[in-house]
Amino acid sequence: MHSNTFLRLLLVASAASITIATPALFHRQSCDEGNKRVCYGKDGGTSQALDPADVEYVASYLRFIGESNTGANARWTMPASGSACQEWAISVPGAGTVLALAKHTTPFVATSVLYADIAATIDAVGGLLECQENGGQMPAIVNKTDPVYTLAEYKATKARSDGITIKLVRDPNFSK
Question: Predicted confidence band at 84 (pLDDT cuts at 50, 70, 90)?
Answer without folding.
Answer: low
